[in-house]
Amino acid sequence: MCAHPGPGGEGSRTHGGTGHEPFRLGSELRTRSGSGAGVGHVARGGVSGYAAVHARVRAMYSTILTPETWGALYESADFATLISLLKKTVYGPYLTAVEDKDLTPRRSVYQIKGHLADAYVTVIYMVPESARPLLVQLYRLFEVDNLKAVLRGVATGASWDQVRYVLFPLGSFTVLPAQAMIEEESVGAAVELLRGTPYYSTLSHAMERYTAEQSLFPLEVALDLDYLRELWSDINRLPSRDREQALRIVGSLIDMNNLMWAIRYRVYHHLSEEEIINYTVPFGYRVRDEDIRAIAAGADIAQVVTRIYPDLADVSPLFQEPRSGLPQLELRLQRRIVKQCRAAFIGYPFHIGIPVAYVLLNELEIQDLTVLIEAKSLQVPAEEFQLHLVMS
Question: What is the pTM (predicted TM-score) of this model?
Fold first, then answer.
């Protein structure tokens, strides 16, 4: 659930979502292939509950791409060679499920995301019941990203064929009537198709501003804020040891998004102090409400960031040219999260941090692969695309 798009640009909002109801979690839960591979018994809480989870996730963690594999991918001559190499990795079954002639860059990214979908389903099914709502909410982020992509498609008049492979492959675990929404002629009509889902209330309340401004921005903000509030609530409902681990990893993710939103609202959108406060959240792990309010009030952003993250290299130069600097700041924060995820596998192993860390590392790996696939398809030199990679 890290930044689903790549390093955020001027208008990007990297996370969003709402509620728990959309994910149909039950005894019928299986991987996308239908095989149920890796789906074991539902774990109990405590040490015994996490013992099987730890062993299974450790095995899954071993499939994260090695530095040697990344090196070979970097050096691949072109897109076709890159795909050939990826077929020899854990992503192979997802890529070989489609004929080579149909493996465009967009379709290739869609296919490899299937691995992350299967990983989430496996982990959600295995974790103790007390931990499941947090994993479900992390997974639900992709449904909300899909919803935002569908709304953009409706607003721009895109066809279903143009949109379908931009979406995350949730299979049957979604309440979105995505194709039917795309076929509507207006955003308002598309939103009406969401009646009966948890998203309808959130979007219907924001439709007045959408109608007045003819911008999807208020709809996306509403979804994002609802998502983070529910995610924060899920963290705080965890048992103490799990809560501590989740705060360290997921709380850092909330921090990154909230901080980057506040900075972008001020730097790119020139929003008022009140608007910035209203469009962010007043909680986090290291980023506090007073930090967001300081940015909203016009404080020196570099000083605020340095106060929060004193171990980051000098960030002042990043704000001299924010259109290139802010994506680099986000990359630095994502790399901090990578370190925290890897640290979760060291020491006491029986906690929620390990499954959460694995799915987030898998997500960031796919984010990097997306950059690499696009770069190779466009023949971008390595010295340019490597600047945008998180896992290296």
Answer: 0.89
> 115-119, 151-155, 309-313: which has the minimum mean pLDDT?
309-313
For residues 287 and 259, the answer to whether their CB atoms sit within 8 Å is yes
Distance CA 8, CA 25 (A): 31
Rounded CA-CA distance 316/305 in Å is: 9
CB atoms within 10 A of CB 261: 26
What single-letter DSSP state applies at residue 109?
Answer: H
pLDDT digits (tens, 9 = 90+) for 313-336: 899 999 999 999 999 999 999 999
DSSP annotation of 159 reads -
Does the pLDDT at position 100 exceed 90?
yes
**Token pair in block for residue 15:** 């996370």
Crossing angle, helix 240-267 and helix 353-377, to 10 degrees? 40
* Helices within the chain (DSSP H only): 46-61, 67-75, 79-86, 92-95, 105-126, 132-156, 160-163, 178-182, 187-192, 198-213, 217-236, 240-267, 273-278, 289-296, 301-308, 322-343, 353-377, 382-385
Query: Residue 89 carries which DSSP code?
Result: S
Please give the full DSSP string across 297-363, using - where no structure is assigned.
TT--HHHHHHHH-TTSPP-GGGGTSHHHHHHHHHHHHHHHHHHHHHHTTSS---STHHHHHHHHHHH
